[in-house]
Amino acid sequence: MDKIVRFDHVSQYNDYNNHETLHPLVSVVDFSNAGLRPPAHINLGFYTVFLKDVRCGDIRYGRHFYDYQEGTLVFLAPGQVIKIECNHGPYYQPQGHALVFHPDLLKGTSLGRHMNDYTFFSYDVHEALHLSERERQTVLDCFSKIDFELRHAIDKHSKTLIVTNIELFLNYCQRFYDRQFLTRDNEHKGILAQFEHLLNEYFLSDKPQTLGLPSVGYCAGQLNLSSNYFGDLIKKETGKSAQEYIQAKLIDVAKERIFDINKSVSEIAYELGFKYPQHFSRLFKQRVGHTPNEYRMFN
Length: 299
Description:
Protein name: AraC family transcriptional regulator
Strand content: 5-15%
Shape: elongated
CATH topology of the largest domain: Jelly Rolls
Structural class: alpha+beta
Oligomer: single chain
Domain HTH araC/xylS-type: 197-298
Keywords: DNA-binding, Transcription, Transcription regulation
Pfam families: HTH_18
Radius of gyration: 24 Å
GO molecular function: DNA-binding transcription factor activity; sequence-specific DNA binding
């Protein structure tokens, strides 16, 4: 197995890349000074965003390669372990830039309070952000502003300006992901159709009795997507959360089965994957406005 390289501190990562440490909790790393290095597993203890300028070592997370190319952003949350592989020799030369910032930098800030809103830090390996040339320049401008503040003499405004610029960068990334959802519209419509087919097949099988109600995580896994990317995609495509979409399908199936007078409401609830019939009745009334028995009587 390749060597595992662990970085708990930003300064350690800077040293690894022959980069000057200007702040203990944040850095904009230019890989042009980094030396050749062998394949390795890397464990990062801070938020990391790679801007990959050219193909310079393949990043693997789990069993999959990151879907990156020239001008692509890759997001890693603290604690993730990635593998850098070399396909053209025993060593590779990293190129491009990285923004790294420790969670401690965000303590007591607005960004720290809603960092979880940036769900792309939990996207899977093949869900990287592909940039246009104009978007790439915007990213480089953001990195430049952060680097400018890091090189400025530290004063009472430093932390606010650094964190504000990081937040601005992340907000741009949200905009760029919204654009990517739209420009990959055909691919995403295919996923929506697969999602619909998956739910249809699920409720026609005995999986509800053995696995219970289909979860967002289960559906995302079946479609080879991370839960966050899948949820964001479905929201963009349908205006509903993935959970709301699943519940709508569940109610649609339930409406059909309620007209089978040979089955009690409890039997139908168990068939659909509910452990407790009262939970089914409560959800049905919330979504339809009538209890299952009322719906059966009035329709």
